[in-house]
Amino acid sequence: MTKIADGMSLNSPLPVWKSYAGELLSLENEVHIFKFNLKDFGNLDYREALSQAEFEKASKYHRTEDKEAFLRRRYLLKKLLGAYLQIPSNMVEFAYSVRKKPSVKGGVEFSLSHSKDYVLVALSNQAIGIDIEWIDPSFEFNDIAINHFHPEEVGLLRNSMTARSDFYTIWTRKESILKATAEGLIMAMNLFSVTPGSITRNNNVYHFQSYQTIQKYQFSLALPADLNCSFWEIRSLSFL
Questions:
Q1: How confident is the model at residue 174 (pLDDT cuts 50, 70, 90)?
Q2: Sorting pLDDT into bands at 50, 70 and 90, what band is 9?
Q3: Of 13, 34, 77, 165, which shows the fewest CB atoms inside 10 Å?
């Protein structure tokens, strides 16, 4: 892992994923990250959780696999939120900010990201962002870095012995902060650097936490400074 100027690594030590079985969790000064592997779940009855509007949204995907992936992600998200709020999953309602950032009616903020078989959901009572990416060993990332990364980030990659890993760390940090602020992917991604441990956007300070998993996935979080992180793995829906 590359070292940055202040001596800190871009990535934190591997998180310890605890098995989640429906415990009541406080969001006071906490962010809870939940991991799903889609391969752990067989046939799902989407009608238990999803609305007609969500089925209509799924129908707009051209590829069957994309439609199915959307339905599975949304189902798992609503089952999790329903369990947390202690309401039926089909009663979970979303609210949207002026910038179209979704949250849950009732004050729960969330961020969802997926890559291949993995889905991550972060829950908090403050604005947060999460992004996960599979580290593609054949992906040519140099042009993207040159065109969309800050000069400080480009310089880091050029001097790195783990440039591919560091590219994904930088990319997921950029995605996570833009999710937290609801800016979405913007053209001016090269105007700010995410190599420091924190960043100020829209007059708010966010801190980064980045992790590379044993399965060769990279994920990053952008969150307010005063939040602690807990990591949970869900492999069964029996309690949801």
A1: very high
A2: low
A3: 13
Instruction: Give the list of residues 6+ apart from residue 52 with CB closer than 8 angstroms, or none.
Output: none
Report how far residue 180's alpha carbon sits from residue 110's, in angstroms, rounded to the nearest whole number.
Answer: 9
Q: 10 falls in which pLDDT band (50, 70, 90)? A: confident
Band (pLDDT 50/70/90 cuts) for residue 97 is confident
Give the Cα separation of 40 and 47 in Å (integer): 19
pLDDT tens string 20-73: 988 889 999 999 999 999 989 989 999 999 999 999 999 999 999 999 999 999
Q: Rounded to whole angstroms, what are the CA distances from 139 to 142, 144, 148, 164, 204?
A: 9, 11, 16, 9, 33
Average pLDDT over residues 119-132: 95
Read off the amino acid at residue 156.
L
Q: What's phi and psi for 126, nearest 5 deg?
A: -130, 165
Q: If you ran DSSP here, which 8-state letter would residue 52 be given?
A: H
What is the spatial distance between Cα 80 and Cα 173, in angstroms, rounded to a whole number? Answer: 25
Q: How many residues are listed for the chain in this entry?
A: 240
Exposure letters 150-188 (e unless 16+ CB within 10 A, then b): beebbebbeebeebbbbbbbbbbbbbbbbbbbbbeeeee
Residue type, 127: A
Sign of the Cα pseudo-torsion (24, 85, 130, 49, in order): positive
